Amino acid sequence: MELDDCAFPLLDSVVSTADTDEAFRGANWSLLVGAVPRREGMERKDLLNINGGIFTGQGEAIARNAADDCRVLVVGNPCNTNALIGSTAAARHGMPKDRWFAMTMLDENRGRSQLASKAGVPVADVRGLAIWGNHSSTQFPDAWHATIGGRPAANVIGDEDWLRGDFIADVQQRGAAIIKARGQSSAASAANAVIDTVRNVAHPTGETFSAAIPAPAHAGYDVPEGLVFGYPVRVSDTGSVEVVQDIEHDQFARSKIEATTNELLEERTAVQELLA
Ligand code: LMR
Q1: Ligand 1 centroid to 190 CA: how many Å?
Q2: Which of 170, 198, 227, 251 has the fewest C-beta atoms under 10 angstroms from its C-beta?
Q3: Residue 186: CB within 6 Å of ligand 1?
Q4: Is 203 part of the annotated catalytic residue set?
Q5: Structure pTM?
Q6: How far is the CA of 170 from the centre of ligand 1 (A)?
Q7: Does residue 214's CB lie within 6 angstroms of at least one atom of ligand 1?
Q8: What confidence tens digit (pLDDT) does each residue in 72-118 have?
């Protein structure tokens, strides 16, 4: 009803259905927001068993019914591993896994906002903040390769302890803080990050942005192939999504990336039977 009431000029019609075959028929983009949301005190891992199962059915329905060029953005948590489950199920029906994404743009936006506030600059001045790994409390927001007003963010901020400590912790825990503040998980900021992700993929500008994708073979950074992993990515002229290469990480960054990789491997082990 509210979609109709917005009188969006580009919204032709809405189909409301619980039949996944009907829902995904002909879709060019499938935005998988439906999942049991995290409540206060829960970690995303607690949702694995509750939500993992529904992504098998959705992956199969997308592969059977969606348009040949369909891309899928998983938002429902734990989104990386839900995307792994859905893309694996879809691949059994012939859909390439590289059309699947899990959302880390919300974390990038959260981190950019924190950096802008600390530096006292407009958020548009903060660019290139990559989110590595899982959309969870192990993610690594890499301020050391971001820029503020064209200068290295770490130089502008000038407070290494804050960057390594509160900055990372606040971005990692922001989802939990929102849940605590409003009694429900993020809604408007998550929807906004969906729009940012789709726009970045569908209308490439050459800019780097954050998205989790099935780790390609030889993508580097010691991530096992196939794990749905958050990277800085860029869309090529031909529309393919590529991991930004040759980023040098120091020991601190490598340890953070290893920790979030290990968490994703644990999640993969926990849902192994859904991937068989
Ligand atoms: C968020 O980051 O706000 C959402 O993914 C909700 C959550 O579970 O953290």
Answers
A1: 8
A2: 251
A3: yes
A4: no
A5: 0.95
A6: 13
A7: no
A8: 999 999 999 999 999 999 999 999 999 999 999 999 999 999 999 99
Ligand 1 pocket test: pick from 138, 185, 210 the residue with the most ligand atoms within 8 Å of its Cβ.
185
Whose CA is closest to atom 3 on ligand 1? 175
Nearest residue (CA) to ligand 1, atom 2: 175
Catalytic residue of the set 135, 145, 203, 249:
135
Average pLDDT, the chain: 95
Question: Cα dihedral angle (6, 9, 12, 15), rounded to 10 degrees?
Answer: -30
Give residues with Cβ within 8 angstroms of 209, minimum separation 6: 105, 108, 196, 197, 200, 232, 233, 234
pLDDT, one tens digit per residue, over 3-13 is: 999 999 999 99
Q: What are the CA-CA distances from residue 110 to residues 64, 186, 189 (Å)? A: 36, 12, 9
How remote is the CA of residue 186 from the centroid of ligand 1, in Å?
6
Burial bucket for residue 2 (CB in 10 Å: 0-12, 13-18, 19+): exposed
Three-state SS string across 219-267, please? CCCCCCCCCEEEEEEEECCCCCEEECCCCCCCHHHHHHHHHHHHHHHHH
What confidence score (pLDDT) does residue 45 get?
66
Output the CA 173–ligand 1 centroid distance in Å: 9
Per-residue pLDDT of 213-228, as tens digits, reads 999 998 889 999 999 9
Q: Between the CA atoms of 110, 116, 122 and 123, what dihedral angle is there, to the nearest 10 degrees? A: -30
